[in-house]
């Protein structure tokens, strides 16, 4: 095991926790408070929220701070700032980096609600402009860069069609132009991919997925090596009122303790399921970066130490046949999230307009699967009987 992997395991289990401060309890308390009180006026006015000192729950919370220490260490950043959802974290990063008139480059394959945020709010109300690019070639970014470009929004692999972005290449290009880079690293988790080591400026995770891991919390986090940016984000979070709740912070700490074992099992199961599906006559195509047939398999191997349980497939049939397959699944439930213990399926493009299909170059027969922890054999049996309905 590498030095990094050893450090990661300690971060996920113990780092940031001080049992001697809370009666030697092996788990930290949930600091379920909205404020802290003081003995004197001077004490109140000398609080420094950047040094683990606390005065008001909207600014910072001790349980959330334990989680943030772990995540900063896991991503090799200087500080992490946790938010009430992945989207709150994403919004915070955009607001911290951009201004009126900024130009943003965003991947066509980026998470849908991020595109809605850009299209419906930032373009509409804040005079921001956006170029959507495929991003699988560096030239896609080079051609889109303008003098007013301030931010590149990345996701690698993406979570519908699983394209991989050359992170070192994009980071280098962006630095030459004074542009900040942001990546949604939720797919890989910090266990399998560390974008800051490849020169990316800001990492985001939605903790709602694998970090929480049990489909029982919403949360997001930003991590970076830029101390000034991170301090600014802590203040911004206070202004916007978007801090992660203490209960959610505690659940995410608990989720992290088993992240390493869970993600490795999701990977193992994902590989077996993807290999099964790839050979099935009713499956036209499988989108999974663990498969040798993936067009960017080599790049994925260079950047990622593993995969997770998320993949897509194209059914050999129309959207009605695709829906019959999804409806016939027994263990896989029908739902839009992923990263929990449970397997999920969604007919992602079922009702897409022609325009939406053309934008990504897909038809209406794309199904996204999340392989949970029910075991590869059970999942393959379930897929097998449902594919017979196509
Ligand atoms: C779910 C998801 C998000 C949003 O996270 P929330 O916590 O629901 O706001 C962002 N990116 C990806 C890739 C996701 O799957």
What features would you highlight for this structure?
about 400 residues, alpha/beta, Aspartate Aminotransferase, domain 1, five-stranded mixed β-sheet, 15 helices, about 40% helix
Shape: globular
- Biggest sheet features: 7 strands, mixed
Radius of gyration: 21 Å
Level of helix content? 40-55%
- Spatial strand order of the main sheet: 1-7-6-5-4-2-3
Strands, count: 12
Please provide a written account of the structure:
Its cofactor is pyridoxal 5'-phosphate. This is homocysteine desulfhydrase. Belongs to the trans-sulfuration enzymes family. Helices cover 41% and strands 15% of the residues. With 390 residues, the chain is of the alpha/beta class. It has two domains: 255 residues, Type I PLP-dependent aspartate aminotransferase-like (Major domain) (Aspartate Aminotransferase, domain 2), CATH 3.40.640; 128 residues, Aspartate Aminotransferase, domain 1. The strands form two sheets. It has a seven-stranded mixed β-sheet, with helices on both faces. Strands 8-9-12-11-10 form a five-stranded mixed β-sheet, with helices on one face. Strand 4, helix 7 and strand 5 form a beta-alpha-beta unit. Helix 1 packs antiparallel against helix 3 and helix 3 runs parallel beside helix 10. The model has no long low-confidence stretch (mean pLDDT 98). The structure holds pyridoxal-5'-phosphate.
Question: How is the secondary structure organized here?
Answer:
Layout: H1 3-13, H2 41-45, H3 62-74, E1 79-83, H4 86-97, E2 103-107, H5 112-126, E3 129-133, H6 138-144, E4 149-155, H7 167-176, E5 180-184, H8 189-192, E6 202-206, E7 220-224, H9 227-240, H10 246-257, H11 259-279, E8 283-287, H12 297-303, E9 310-315, H13 319-328, E10 333-334, E11 344-347, H14 354-360, E12 366-370, H15 376-387
Parallel strand pairs: 2-3, 2-4, 4-5, 5-6, 10-11
Antiparallel strand pairs: 1-7, 6-7, 8-9, 9-12, 11-12
Helix pairs in contact: 1-3, 3-10, 11-15, 13-15
The structure holds pyridoxal-5'-phosphate.
The site of pyridoxal-5'-phosphate has 12 residues, from helix 4.
């Amino acid at each position: 095991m590498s030095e990094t992997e050893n450090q990661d395991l300690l971060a996920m289990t113990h780092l940031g926790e001080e049992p001697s401060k809370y009666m030697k309890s092996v788990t930290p308390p949930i600091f379920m408070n909205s404020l802290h009180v003081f003995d004197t006026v001077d004490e109140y006015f000398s609080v420094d929220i950047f040094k683990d000192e606390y005065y008001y729950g909207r600014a910072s919370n001790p349980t959330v701070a334990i989680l943030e220490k772990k995540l900063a260490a896991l991503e090799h950043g200087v500080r992490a700032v946790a938010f009430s959802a992945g989207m709150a974290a994403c919004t915070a990063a955009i607001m911290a980096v951009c201004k009126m008139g900024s130009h943003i480059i965003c991947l066509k394959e980026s998470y849908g609600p991020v595109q809605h945020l850009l299209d419906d709010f930032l373009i509409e109300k804040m005079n921001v402009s956006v170029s959507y690019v495929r991003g699988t070639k560096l030239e896609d970014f080079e051609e889109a860069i303008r003098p007013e470009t301030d931010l590149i929004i990345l996701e690698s692999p993406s979570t519908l069609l699983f394209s991989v972005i050359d992170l070192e290449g994009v980071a280098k290009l962006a630095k030459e132009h004074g542009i900040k880079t942001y990546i949604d690293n939720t797919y890989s988790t910090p266990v399998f991919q560390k974008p800051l080591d490849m020169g990316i400026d800001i990492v985001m995770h939605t903790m709602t997925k694998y970090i929480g891991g049990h489909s029982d919390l919403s949360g997001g986090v930003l991590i970076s090596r830029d101390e000034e940016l991170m301090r600014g984000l802590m203040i911004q979070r206070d202004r916007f009122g978007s801090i992660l709740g203490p209960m959610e912070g505690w659940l995410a700490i608990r989720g992290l303790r088993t992240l390493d074992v869970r993600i490795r099992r999701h990977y193992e199961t994902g590989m077996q399921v993807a290999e099964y599906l790839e050979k099935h006559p009713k499956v036209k195509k499988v989108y999974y970066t663990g498969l040798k047939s993936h067009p960017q398999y080599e790049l994925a191997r260079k950047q990622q130490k593993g995969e997770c349980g998320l993949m897509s497939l194209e059914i050999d049939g129309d959207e009605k046949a695709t829906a019959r397959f999804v409806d016939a699944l027994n263990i896989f439930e029908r739902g839009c999230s992923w990263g929990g213990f449970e397997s999920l399926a969604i007919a992602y493009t079922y009702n897409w307009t022609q325009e939406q299909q053309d934008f990504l170059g897909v038809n209406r027969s794309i199904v996204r699967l999340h392989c949970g922890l029910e075991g590869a054999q059970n999942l393959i049996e379930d897929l097998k009987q449902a594919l017979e309905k196509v």
